[in-house]
Structures are given as structure tokens and as C-alpha cells.
Amino acid sequence: MGQTLYIIEGVALVQSRGGHTIEARPGDVIHTSPGEEHWHGAAPDRFMTHLALWETDDTTWPDHVTDAEYHGPRVTGRSRA
User: Fold this and answer.
1) What is the sign, positive or negative, of the torsion defined by CA atoms of 20, 25, 31, 37?
2) Model-level pTM?
3) Which of 17, 49, 66, 74 lies deepest, with the highest CB count within 10 Å?
4) Residue 35 backbone zone (phi > 0: left; psi -120 to 50: alpha; other: beta)
């Protein structure tokens, strides 16, 4: 599913399956292409508010995020769109 995330408050973590975990902050825009498996959520020690825009109504929820993925190393990035 193609999805665009706009981070409003807090610290978000976003990872495409097998990729780097991106730490996103207010004002950051993250886009994932249709068919790109990914997860996103708040950092373990912070809250997060975001807007999520889907390109289609067809959503498939993949496997749960593992603790290793969630607590793994992070990279910072602005506007990965």
C-alpha cells in the first residue's frame, strides 16, 4: 500500500521491511511506495502524533514488529518522499 506519513508531534520510527529504522520528527514527511512492507509507530520513550494518507483502500497488515526491529539502531531523516 502506498502511504504518506506527516509527523506532527513527538518522535516516530519508520522502517521498510529489512531496511534502516528512520527516526522522524515534527515536519518530516515519509512516503512508502505501493507494495512496500513497512511499519511505523512512536519511539519507545516518546509519544507521536501523525497524519497517514493511503493511496488505496487495499490494506494488508503484515507480521508484528519484533523487539529487535523496534529497539534496533536508527537513522535520522527528513522528508523521505
Assistant:
1) positive
2) 0.70
3) 74
4) left
How far is residue 6's CA from residue 3's CA, in Å, rounded to a whole number?
A: 10
Coil/strand/helix, residue 12: strand
DSSP symbol at 66:
P
Tell me the pairing of strands 48-54 and 12-16. unpaired
Cα 2 vs. chain centroid, distance in angstroms? Answer: 12
Among the listed residues 39, 46, 3, the one whose alpha carbon sits nearest the alpha carbon of residue 22: 39
Name every residue whose Cβ is closer than 8 Å to that of residue 44 and which is 6 or more positions away in sequence. 70, 71
27 within 8 A of 7, measured Cβ to Cβ: yes
Beta sheet of 3-10, edge-to-edge order: 29-32, 3-10, 48-54
